[in-house]
Amino acid sequence: MDFHVSRIVAVPKSEVLIKGSKGAFIQWLVTKDHGAHYAVRKFSLEPGGSIGMHTHKYQETVIITKGKCSVCVNNQVYELEEGDFIFINGGVKHGFKNKDEALEFFCIIDYPDDMTIVPVDEKCP
Fold first, then answer.
1. E strand or H helix that includes residue 36
2. What is the pLDDT of residues 53-80, one digit of tens each?
3. What is the domain extent for residue 88?
4. pLDDT of 30-52, one tens digit each?
5. Beta strands 38-55; 22-30: pairing state
């Protein structure tokens, strides 16, 4: 495919199923199905929502476009808000916890051979 045009609202939204997640939803905007070597995903977290601690082999860049959240990376916590971004390398444990308003962020990832997500039995404070 040479190009793809769409609207975010037209892309199906599904619940994030990582253990420890709640009120979190994902949309796969650009994927290898479009011929890309990377993926662009949009996440939406309800107030109080979270994405449980986990690891995976792919790298990701997260760009906050609405709201505020805590991002737990290894054993550190970072407070991010609209306009902030974070790069997380493959194999690094991390999770997200939303604050008191709707949270939206875009996440860009690569496609390693193994896309398995491994839950980590820890909580993001």
1. none
2. 999 999 999 999 999 999 999 989 999 9
3. 8-119
4. 999 999 999 999 999 999 999 99
5. antiparallel
114 within some domain: yes
Task: Indicate whether 125 pLDDT > 70.
Answer: no
Number of domains in the chain: 1
pTM for this model (two decimals): 0.95
Concatenated DSSP letters of 93-125: -EEEEE-SS-EEEEEEEE--S----EE-S----
CA distance 119 to 18: 7
Tell me if residue 9 falls in helix, strand or coil: helix
Hunting for tokens 């109080």 — which residue is that?
A: 48
By CB atoms closer than 10 A (0-12, 13-18, 19+), residue 23 is middle
3-state secondary structure of 65: strand
Taking CA atoms, 106 is separated from 1, 52, 87, 88, 103, in Å, by 23, 17, 12, 13, 10
Bridge partners (DSSP) of residue 55 are: 118
